[in-house]
Amino acid sequence: MNDRDNLLQNAGINTRLTHIGNDPSDYFGFVNPPVVHASTVLFPNARTMETRSQKYTYGTRGTPTTDALCDAINALEGSAGTILVPTGLAAVTVPLLAFLSSGDHVLIVDSVYTPTRHFCDTMLTRLGVDVEYYDPAIGAGIEQLFKPNTKLVHTEAPGSNTFEMQDIPAIAAIAHKHGAVVAMDNTWATPVYFRPLDFGVDISIHAATKYPSGHSDILMGTVSANARHWEQLKEANITLGICGAPDDAYQILRGLRTMGVRLERHYESALTIAKWLEGREEVASVLHPALPSFPSHELWKRDFKGASGIFSFVLAAEAPEKFKAKAHAFLDALQVFGLGYSWGGFESLAVHVNLNDRRIRKAPQEGPVIRLQIGLEDVVDIKADIERGFAAANAV
Known about the structure:
Helix 12 crosses helix 13. By secondary structure, this protein is an alpha/beta fold. It folds into 2 domains: 3-255, Type I PLP-dependent aspartate aminotransferase-like (Major domain) (Aspartate Aminotransferase, domain 2); 259-394, Aspartate Aminotransferase, domain 1 (Alpha-Beta Complex). Strand 4 (150-156), helix 7 (168-177) and strand 5 form a beta-alpha-beta unit. The protein has a 7-stranded mixed β-sheet, with helices on both faces. The chain has helices at 3-9, 13-19, 46-51, 64-77, 88-99, 114-126, 168-177, 190-193, 227-240, 246-278, 297-303, 323-333, 379-394, and strands at 81-85, 105-109, 130-134, 150-156, 181-185, 203-207, 221-225, 283-287, 310-315, 338-339, 349-352, 369-373. This is Cystathionine beta-lyase 1. Its EC number is 4.4.1.8.
């Protein structure tokens, strides 16, 4: 380890985010690495070509640009290696394909990202994998669900849309006792606020589309593995022929430089809005792990260093037949918030959450669930926009 690496290892998070991933001295002093577009890579002779005994051999297996981003993610995750894939969903599906075979049993948290559930219920099932969903609050009780052929436990904390926390160390300990791999979708917290591998997770999954990008214009996923599982993950990725594009890797690396300060703003503004919503009569409950009132708040407080800008609330409605009408009225009145999927960008977004696919953690009965991504706008303007939404919902 050189002096620069040693300095960064012990530096604050924003210092690290500013400098990890590349050394300007490697590129004639230019601050950012060059974007290397590649398919064919030339070899100096037949022997080198035969043995692939040079650093770069083909575009799908990495370039200086993609390596710079992988190095940065490894520094954040504390991982042995990272792969880049074109989307956040691919970041989930590649490790599932890497570590599961026909006849295996996999445990998937019931509060999982909906497209992940769709992949499990369709392609994984068709490939002969036995898929079982479990309660996010199960903790060490997950041992009761293990079978001799249980090979992987997929976690997500907090859970999609309803934000249930999981006892990751307890689940990881049980999984390892039975020889299973533990994967975690850590998109919400990012490795800035939670480092899964430090808590027993083997595979850390991140939709870099969200906060690393930060500008709602790039699709990419990262998957980071500990030393024990890195080679198998890397080999599966090469076999599948999936890789992240160098232009996108460059943009994500650039986004990392400001991710720390952006996350601080998202965290502060979202928590301010969440606390304010708790006092509103139009709100039945607020689903935010950083609120002391949230059922699994203590797990968040114990393990996480912060929170991001996305959470949900239950819009109070007196009858189920009014749920959709009230939700749509609320959303249609918004002017600062955009109506759109994804999150992690600079702009505030809102969506009416569909929880019909849940097996165990059913949708709240008090009203429709509205998910908010709190962007970088001023809190006073965000509150005023939500007020517009409440006024419209109250008129239904």
